[in-house]
Design goal:
single chain, alpha/beta, 5-stranded antiparallel sheet, elongated, binds ligand C2E, binds calcium ion
Amino acid sequence: MTIRLGFGAIFALLIAAVIFCAVRGIKSGKRIGRAVGWVNFATIIPLIGNLIIIGSTIKEIAIVGCYLYYIGMDMVMASMVFFTSVYCKGIGNGQQRPTVMYVILGVDAVQLLLNTIFGHAFTIEPVDVHGYVYYRMIPFWGQNIHRIIDYGVFFCVMLIFIIAIIKTVKLYRERYSIVLLGMLIIAFWQTFYIFSRTPVDRSMIGYGVFGLLVYYLALHYRPLRLLDRLLSDIVSNMNEALFVYDAYGRCLWMNETGSRLLDLKNDDTENVPAGLKKMFGDREYTKEEWSENKILGSGEDARYYTIENHNVNEDKKHLAGSYLVVRDNTEEKRRLKSELYKSTHDSLTGLYTKQYLYQCISVLLHEDRETEYSIVFVDVKNFKIVNDVFGSDFGDLALMQISEWLSTNVNEKCRYGRIAGDTFGVLIPTEKLKADRQKVEDELLNFTVSSNGLEHRLLIHIGVYEVDDRDMDVSVMFDRAHLALSAITGNYKEHIACYDKDMRKKVVWDQQITAGLSEAISKHQIMPYLQPITNRSGKVIGAEALARWIHPQNGFMSPAVFIPILEKNGLIVEVDRHIWRCACEILSSWKKQGNDMFISINISPKNFYYIDVVSEIKALVEEYDIEPKKLRIEITETVMMNDAQEKFKLLDELRNDGFIVEMDDFGSGYSSLNLLKDMPVDVLKIDMKFLSSSDNDEKARTIIRNIIQLSEDLHITSLTEGVETVEQYSELSQIGCKLFQGYYFAKPLPRKEFEEYAFPRAS
Ligand code: C2E
Ligand code: CA
Ligand code: CA
C-alpha cells in the first residue's frame, strides 16, 4: 500500500510538473518550445499509464494502464525525435525529416493495439507484494518488437547527440552532453526495470525528470561559461583599458589594453593602483562614480585620456565592486586637430582660409576695441598671365613668396590669410600700417619671383579700408578694401590706395547707370548728338555721332559720365549698337531727302571682344539700304593693341566693302608713326586737346605738321578735332589739314539743330 501511495504521489507530482512545462513550452511560441512541450505532453501518457497500473487492483483497469504505457512510450520516442531534430539543428549536414522514425513508431503503436485481439504482445498477471495485489506485465514477442523499436529509436537519438557533442565547439558541448547524460540514465533505468520485472516502472520518473530537464535546458538555461568567455573576450580586446576592483578597492583583473597602458604583466593586478597613481596622479580611483579628462605631456607629444569609474552594486546599499575605464583619445584628438587645421588653413600657403580669416578678424575686432584697425586687400595683378606664361608651379611659388612676405610684415595684432586664388587679406593696426606704408611701397616696387632661371616682377596692389564700424560684416569690409584698388592710377610707383566714402558713392552710381541702361535705350533716352565735320572751306560734309543720355532724374549726361562705366562691364556694346542703328536711320532719311552727308560712328575697343563688329555693321547698312561709305567707322588705336594683324584684317574687310575707316584720337596714347604706315585706315583724326595741353605750342605745331605731312604721303586724309578758334582753323588749313571738327564750327547738336545748321535750305 505504501509503495502504491508513495509512487502514486511521486507520479502525480511529476505529472503536474510535466503538464506545467508542456503548457509553458508550447505557449513560448518558439519551435524549440513546442518540441519541449511535446516531449512533456508525451511523457504524461506513460506516466498516467503507470499510475493506473500502480493504483489498480482490477485487471481490466490495469490493462488499460498498460496500453497507455506502451503506446505512450511510442509517443515519447516520437516527441524525442522531434525534439532532437530541433535541438540539434545545424549539427547534421542536411535537413532530413525524421519521417521514417515516426512511421515505424506509428506501426508499433498499431501493433500493440492489436494485442487486444491477438494477445501477441503482453498480458498481465497479479502479484502479491506484502499482501497487496499488483498487476505486472508478461511480455510476448509483440512486446519484444516494441522494445527493439523504442530502443532503436532511442539509440538513434542518442547517437545524434553524440555526434553533436563531437562536432560542436567546446563551449557548446555542455548543452548536448547534459541531455545525453539524462538519456543514458533513463536508458539504464529502463533496462533495469525490464529485467527486474517489478510492476512499477521507476524509470518513468526518469522520463518525467528528463522532460523537466529539457524544458529548462532548451528554454531557460544560458551557458554561463559561454557567456563568461564571450564577455571576457570582448572586454580583453576592447580599445579601452579596463580595471576591475572588488568592493574593498583591490584590483582583481585588467584587460590587455590596461596592462599595456600601465606597462604591467597581465596578472600583476597588485601594482595597478600604484601604476594609475604614477600615470594620472594621486586620487581615490574607486568607490565613487566619477569621470575626468586628462592631458599628459604637452605640445605635439600631448596625450589625451578620459577616465571613468563605475560602481557595480549588489543591491541599493551594498557595493559589489567597481570598474575603471581609461580611454586613450589621443589619435581621435589628433585627427580632429588635423581636420580642423585643414579646414582652416590653405593647403598651398598654410595661411588661414577665407572663412577662418573672417572669423578670426571678427573675434579680434570685438576683443580688442582699443586698437584702431585697417583691413587690407592684397591683389596680384595679371596673375593669370603668370600662370599661363611661367606655369602653375611658378605661380604656386609666387603665391608662397607673397604669403612669406605678408608674414614678415605682420605682428601678433594682425590676422592674415588667403582670400582666393591671387588675393590675400590682412587685418592690421592702422598705426602699424601707416608707419610701414613707405617700406611696403618700396618692397612692392620691386617684388620679383625667381626660380630655375625664370624671373618675373609681380605687380601687387593693396586696397585699404580703415575699420570704422566693427559690427559690419567682415566680408563688407573686404569689399570696401577691394573697392579701394580701383583708385590706384597707372603710376608704377603707386601700389596702395585707401577706401573713402566717395568710392562707395561711385559704386552705387555705377550700379544705377548699369541698371537703368536697357530702359534708357528702349525709351530713346540715349540718343546721338551730331557734331559737324567740315572741309577746308568750312562746308559741313558730315557729322560724328556722339552719345547723350537725357536721364529722367539726372538730366543731360555726357558720355564721359557713363561710357567708362559701361566699357568696364562690357555693356557699351548695347549703347554702340543703339547709336549705330540711330545713325543708320538718320542716314536713311537724309538719303531720301537727297542730303549727301556721312556720319561717323564710334566703336569701342570692347566691342571686338563681345560681338562680330564687321557683320553687324554690314547687316545694318543692308537693312537701311545705305551706302557703306556714308557710315564712317571710328576706331581708336587701343583696338590694335591686341592681335594687331587680326584687327588689320577686319579693317581691310570693312574697307573692301566700301566703309571708310577713321583712326580716332591719334596722338593721345601709344600712337606710333611706325604703326601708321601699316594701318589700313582712310582718315586720321588728330585731337587738338592732347597737343594744346603741351607747354610748348611750337613743339605741338611741329608734331601736327609732321603728322599731317606723313598722312598726306600715305594717302590718308587728315582730320583735326577739337578746333576751337579761327586761328587754329586757318593754321591747320595752311599746314594741309583736310577736315575739321570742333566747337569753332559747332558743338555736338541734337539731330534737328544739326539739320538746321548743316542744311539751311531744308529748314
Ligand atoms: P571722341 O570720339 O574723341 O569725341 C570727341 C569728343 O570731343 C566729344 O566729346 C566732343 O563733344 C568733344 N569735342 C568736340 N569738339 C570739341 C572742342 O572744340 N573742344 C573740346 N574741348 N571738345 C570737343 P563727348 O561727346 O563728350 O565724347 C567723349 C568721348 O566719349 C568720345 O570721344 C568717345 O570716345 C566717347 N563716345 C561718345 N559717344 C560714343 C558712342 O556712341 N560710342 C562710343 N563707344 N563712345 C562714344
Ligand atoms: Ca570719336
Ligand atoms: Ca576723338
